[in-house]
């Protein structure tokens, strides 16, 4: 009986040891010992398509990493960062909103300008109102929507107004370019001031009208790693992808401009 009891205990010990060994092995992701990571990127709404594509490439090149985006107006994003939102990378649609963050010493080193963008008039397909110039947006029969003044596209709109002397009377001021675009594509507005890249992204829903005065308000887009990031090495690698030749090809194909050489 004692021999039988000893054999049972020994057998249980082997089973428990085997279970313990299996648990230790499963703690290592893919056997590498590196846990899954999430990289959080706050980016201007106009970067939605391009950064989403680059995020997928980054995930492919970094197994176990998930890139999570927060796309919104740059002014809203800057305030969220200053207020302590957990984020690794910030890409703004102008230097002013990046400055809100850098003034608080919340960006590692100096932000890098990685693309430029400029305004374009978004109109319904076929341009039924016959809008051909920036001045046409002030006509009383044109329902216009623009970005709010604190948003980069709204700030650019104000610069063009000041340069041309045209006084716009928008029916609404939206929180970001995508909201403006949505008003036009849904038929709730005749025209909206967005970026050339936004019109290109929705080319099946809206047409774009160029105007020379847009050159007076070119937006430079800076990107940087947030100092509170717990994934700074990974964040730096994402910034490097954005600024790399491959990253610039994706951005250029969407209509973004190349920043002037420093």
UniProtKB/TrEMBL annotation:
Q: What sections of the protein cross the membrane? A: none
Q: Which Gene3D superfamilies match?
A: Periplasmic binding protein-like II
Q: Which InterPro entries match?
A: ModA, ModA/WtpA
Q: Where is the signal peptide?
A: 1-28
Q: Enumerate the SUPFAM superfamilies for this protein.
A: Periplasmic binding protein-like II
Going by the entry's taxonomy, the superkingdom of the source organism is recorded as Bacteria
> What keywords is this UniProt entry annotated with?
Metal-binding, Signal
| Any Pfam family the entry gives | SBP_bac_11
Record's NCBIfam families?
Answer: modA
Family designation: Belongs to the bacterial solute-binding protein ModA family.
Q: What is this protein called?
A: Molybdate ABC transporter substrate-binding protein
Q: Please state the gene responsible for encoding this protein.
A: modA
């Amino acid at each position: 009986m004692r021999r039988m009891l000893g054999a049972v205990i020994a057998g249980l010990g082997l089973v428990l040891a085997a279970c313990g060994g299996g648990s230790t092995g499963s703690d290592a992701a893919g056997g590498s010992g590196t846990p899954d990571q999430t990289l959080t990127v706050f980016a201007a709404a106009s970067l939605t398509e391009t950064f989403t594509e680059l995020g997928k490439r980054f995930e492919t090149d970094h197994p176990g990493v998930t890139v999570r985006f927060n796309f919104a107006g740059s002014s809203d994003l800057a305030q969220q960062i200053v207020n302590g939102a957990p984020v690794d990378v910030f890409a703004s649609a102008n230097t002013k909103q990046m400055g809100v963050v850098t003034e608080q010493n919340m960006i590692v080193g100096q932000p890098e300008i990685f693309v430029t963008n400029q305004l374009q008039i978004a109109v319904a397909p076929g341009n039924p109102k016959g809008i051909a110039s920036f001045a046409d947006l002030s006509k009383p029969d044109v329902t216009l929507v623009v970005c709010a003044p604190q948003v980069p596209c709204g700030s650019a709109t104000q610069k063009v107004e000041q340069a041309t002397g045209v006084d716009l009377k928008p029916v609404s001021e939206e929180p970001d370019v995508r909201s403006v675009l949505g008003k036009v594509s849904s038929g709730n507005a005749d025209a909206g001031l967005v970026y050339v890249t936004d019109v290109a992204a929705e080319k099946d829903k809206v047409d774009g009208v160029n105007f020379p005065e847009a050159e007076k308000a070119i937006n430079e887009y800076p990107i940087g790693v947030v100092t509170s990031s717990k994934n700074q090495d990974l964040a730096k690698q994402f910034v490097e992808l954005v600024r790399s030749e491959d990253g610039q090809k994706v951005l250029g194909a969407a209509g973004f401009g190349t920043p002037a050489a420093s």
